[in-house]
Amino acid sequence: MNTNAKLIVGVLVGAALGSIAALLLAPATGLRTRKNINKKAKKIVKQIEGMVYGKPKKRLSTASATSHAKNGRASVSSR
Question: Are the C-beta atoms of residues 56 and 63 closer than 8 Å to each other?
Answer without folding.
Answer: no
